[in-house]
Amino acid sequence: MSPVIPILFALGLGLSGWLAARARADGFRRALPGSRLASLPQQHGWYVALWAAVPALLFAAVWAAISPDLVLAHVLADPAAAKLPAFGFQRETILAEARALADGTIKIGFNPLSKPLVAPYRAALGHFGTIGLAATILLGLAGGGFAFSRIRPDFAARGKVERAAMLGLLAASLVAIFTTFGILASLAFETLRFFNLVNPLDFLFGTNWSPDPMSAPTSGVEHNYGAVPLFWGTVYIGVVIAMIVAIPLGLMSAIYLTQYATPRVRKWMKPLLEILAGVPTVVYGYFAALTVAPLVRDAAQMIGISGASSESALAAGLVMGIMIIPLVSSMADDSIAAVPQAMRDGSLALGATKSETIRRVIVPAALPGIVAGIMLAVSRAIGETMIVVMAAGRTARLSLDPLDGMTTVTAQIVALLTSEGTPDHPATLSAYALGFVLFIVTLALNFVALRVVKRFREAYE
Amino acid sequence: MSEAVPSPAAPPARNAERIAARLKARHRAEARFRALGLGAVVLSALVLALLLFTMTSNGLGGFTRNELRFPIDLTTGVLNIQSAQIEGTDAVQALDTAALKDVVELSAEKALGEQASGELATTAWREVAQQIIADPTLLSRRFDVSVPVSDAMAKALRGEGDPQLGLLARKLKQEGKLHRALDIGFLTRSDATSPQQVGIWGALKGSILTMLVTLGVAFPVGVAAAVYLEEYAPKNRWTDLIEVSINNLAAVPSIIFGLLGLAVFLWIFPYYRSAPLIGGLTLALMTMPVIVISGRNAIKAVPPSIRDGALAIGASPIQVVFHHVLPLALPGILTGTIIGMARALGETAPLLMIGMRAFVATPPGSFTEPATALPVQIYLWSDEIDRGFVERTSAAIIVLLIFLLVMNGLAIYLRNRFEKTW
């Protein structure tokens, strides 16, 4: 049974609780004309609705997480399960197929061993599904009934509902902390497992990256996980090439649009540039692989460089730079606008031309903001995945030649986690270690950038 | 200093000349600088234009396919079937038993020749079956069908593959039996292995389900967090920590959220791998900070006098927010939400991490069934070797971009419609 059904039931109970309690509170009011209830009828409604829905919802969520394991245990206890292979991939496949057959996701199974398991699976699914649904409904009824019995004309429902609402708001704001903590914990946990197998120093300073998810988990773990070529590829594509494109174009666009363009031009061009930031990166990746990479290759061949491949760091970096332009230009735009008009007027009054004013006065004054924008852009570029996955190739290489295929941290994470490796293999675990490094580096960049912006804002206020 | 002051001995005329020359140079530099700025803007716009142009020029072909047209005659009773049989749910099966496939192939052979009839797509007879089911009177008529050709022939028509087949294809084309037809089915079919038969409905439905989960989780949580932080939160170390983590989350690379989803959500729910439920939850965590940040700005923009007025007539702090502040801030919050959702809709990397990259040939029926999403579908097709997928991929990109355009347009409309100055 889909876990959505108990959730819908819980919500339905909440709604009916709301309606019932409201009607009852209305009834009090009619029964005692002229008197005042301690709370408004809909506050009584909310009180009952919360009692009916919240415990039931919590239970439904927990049940959705634990019932599959109960079902599995039940099926494995069945005599038909005795024929299963002891452990490993095949066993998982058979069980998954039996499950899919049982709940009707697929119609035809391919594995003969899965067939006898379908009936016990279906029985167990039905059994535990019914238990879960029944418990959800009972819990909802019990909670709602308890709350409903407490409703009286002098019952202060408002205070209780408001306290619950406040708790809900607080809990929502804690989600951000939990998410951060979850990211840190999951990355750190898997990274530590990886470092049990591979020396962290070998990982951070080794220069040979050739993990093989299909190999025996212990072979070559020491010298196949040197991540330096990945760090180099990331820096070369995301920082060197992309920024060579993005900084001049972004900065000059911002200067032109803030200083020279007429309001009409600005009104049209600014959103147009912002479209660049809204295009999904998979589209950029496809554009890089389909259009830019062949262009780069042909151009290279035209000037006599043979052996240029269709996967190059240059193509990925160019397109990434284009994607970054609006990021640089909007930050530059903001910080240029924050430069006090008096500084500009002073410079112009002394006889400087507009461009001289921009180069000697405005840009230096806006520099902290511009630098912060560039740092954010760098952090975005090194975290960017799809463009490099689709256009930069998968060869880890320490090279200065932009026409070489290179690979980056993000591209390797995708490659490692979408291959067929087992979860405990060092190749799989190394993806988390790479993710950890990426997380730390982008966080540091953002942190510094925000600091810079903060300090710079104070300078003119 | 001394250079700047003209020496008193120099004749005034030469001095003026020098100043004029320098002024000219400075004005030239000014013009150059300005041109550079304009160039940067124009170049960026041109790249955008090139991107859109390549996608549209490649992609428009993706909404069409090569079809063979030939007549089928069912009046002679070749199809041993009653019209009652094709009204049930297993109509296609009934037509299969009645050997519709052979009839279609025979008709094709009669009209197009033996060689060409071998080049019908394997699903051709199914499309004929759908036509018959839609219009049972066809059973007693002679009618024209237009069905897709095989991939081999589509390939030969592009000038790749078997040259013999290419000749045949061009001949058929000249006779008007082979033509390119608008393929509405592209929007209603699902993934397949052959570019002539693929469609995006499965991916689109997966995307829609995923977005529903994302919206259902990220919007309430994001708005509640924004309300708490902006209206009630005491200023202490805890709220600082919350604030810092929200700002940081907004800047964390999306693939990291994928790793989180893989490590946490799939550990809790191992049976829902590649389901929209898990994808939506993962994207919700990514979208939430965007909603919180824009929500806080919108709430901040509501003037304090409204809160004071409500408090003054006896509303509780909760009532002030839920009855007065939130309704006024809602347009701003919605704008931020739509922008966040648009970003989530285009996101690929986190979905790859949690396994939404499997080949899914049937559209997902619920939140817990395996699914893929539109950007992931684009990524998967872009990896296909068959050149026929290029136009299909670009066509899918067009659909995705149209969706994004509509969402962003809606956000702009909302912002303009409800923009208020107090």
Unreliable stretches of chain B? none
Low-confidence stretches of chain A: none
Describe the largest sheet of chain A. none
Let me know the average pLDDT of chain A. Answer: 86
Alpha plus pi helix count of chain B: 17
Give the secondary structure arrangement, pairings included.
The complex is a heterodimer of chains A (461) and B (422).
Chain A: H1 4-31, H2 41-77, H3 89-103, H4 115-150, H5 157-197, H6 200-205, H7 228-260, H8 263-278, H9 281-302, H10 313-337, H11 341-349, H12 354-383, H13 386-391, H14 409-417, H15 426-460
Helix pairs in contact in A: 1-2, 1-4, 2-4, 2-5, 3-4, 5-15, 7-10, 7-12, 8-10, 9-10, 10-12, 11-12, 12-15, 14-15
Chain B: H1 12-59, E1 64-73, H2 91-97, H3 100-112, H4 114-117, H5 124-134, E2 142-148, H6 151-157, H7 163-174, E3 178-182, H8 185-188, H9 201-232, H10 237-249, H11 254-268, H12 276-300, H13 304-312, H14 317-346, H15 349-353, H16 374-382, H17 388-418
Antiparallel strand pairs in B: 1-2, 1-3
Helix pairs in contact in B: 1-17, 2-5, 3-5, 6-7, 9-12, 9-14, 9-16, 11-12, 12-14, 13-14, 14-17, 16-17
Which features does this protein show?
A: 461 residues; mainly alpha; B: 422 residues; 3-stranded antiparallel beta sheet; extended
Descriptive account of the structure:
The complex is a heterodimer of chains A (461) and B (422). With 461 residues, chain A is an all-alpha fold. Chain A contains 15 helices and no strands. In chain B, 65% of the residues lie in helices and 5% in strands. Chain B has helices spanning 12-59, 91-97, 100-112, 114-117, 124-134, 151-157, 163-174, 185-188, 201-232, 237-249, 254-268, 276-300, 304-312, 317-346, 349-353, 374-382, 388-418; strands spanning 64-73, 142-148, 178-182. A 3-stranded antiparallel beta sheet of chain B has the order 2-1-3. The longest helix of chain B has 48 residues, at 12-59. Classes of the chains: A mainly alpha (461), B mainly alpha (422). The interface between A and B is large, with 93 and 93 residues. Chain B: It is a multi-pass membrane protein. Chain B: Belongs to the binding-protein-dependent transport system permease family. CysTW subfamily. Chain B: One of its GO terms (biological process) is phosphate ion transmembrane transport. Chain B: This is Phosphate transport system permease protein PstA.
